């Protein structure tokens, strides 16, 4: 029979030895000493209590950063949104959820992104729609976590109000571009003074105009309201889905837009439920129209697929300014923005156009496609022949480009300023 294992003997310290060991021990701390110059390179920001936009502007210290609760930030946006935007041009702001969100729910971060807030803190443990927006937006720029704000949200000489339908304020210098000819002769300009429509039109030889593009000196907000060159129309047609789920359930698709308050459209565009088909449903419906998108640089599209019981099967967030038009397959992500096993996709058709007022849409179409305009002329000629008018009795009063140029110029200026108004 084998003997029992030996018992390890530990030395027993006397009371005097224990006291000597504790007396010789010296606690050096959890961190080591750092040279002040090295520490100044690491600490880029200095947290301070917010004392008002005027105080922050007076101090003009870009490394000062203040934190705002969700409710406080909304209050400042309601009372002084342009000042909040200017504050974020100079220094950093951080928004955090209000303390009442004990269920770890989230708020819509787009509201504060519109004001240029750099750090919008969310509860990452809750993958709701608002968290999906955050993950989808910062997926771009190689997932670095940094996105450059639009130019006018960084320049001190621009004023931006996220609640306005004409967000950028400023003055655009008068500009007139005419192909193959100067409007007022060789390098002659009358932009330094006002002129009336008759004086303006008499200075232009319409017979030589091939295309006319006019930008007249007005405030940019008025220019956007009247001309709408910076607005966009977005048409999204959901054609079909592929491998949405391995269950035999009905499915439908929602398409939403988040951006400025005037651009945000939620819970309005959804397809019908295609029953008992999660493999390859076909959604044969008219396109969803997002008309007059004021600021595409801040807008994102959200595609979400649900089953007939309202459970989300997949989603994807795409920035509007990076969206490619045409027929596209959009790969869907999970609630946490991860790729999925079935690799579900949506087959969609996307059309993005510059916004044109209804009264000018026909004219712009004619300028964009002169052949279509020629076909209209031919139809009119055939209609006149049907009425017994011979071709030899018709006098060609102007060529195609002459007619289009003069019509465009007259209608545009009439729409922009009104008939007989002073330019």
TrEMBL record:
**Top EC group:** hydrolase
State the reactions this protein catalyses: a 1,2-diacyl-sn-glycero-3-phospho-(1D-myo-inositol-4,5-bisphosphate) + H2O = 1D-myo-inositol 1,4,5-trisphosphate + a 1,2-diacyl-sn-glycerol + H(+)
Q: Write out the GO biological process terms.
A: lipid catabolic process; phosphatidylinositol metabolic process; phosphatidylinositol-mediated signaling; release of sequestered calcium ion into cytosol
Note the Pfam families from the entry: C2 (PF00168), PI-PLC-Y (PF00387)
- Which GO-annotated molecular functions does the record name? phosphatidylinositol-4,5-bisphosphate phospholipase C activity
Domain PI-PLC Y-box span(s) in chain numbering = 38-154
Annotated C2 domain ranges read 215-340
| CDD domains tied to this protein | C2_PLC_like
Tell me what this protein is called. Answer: Phosphoinositide phospholipase C
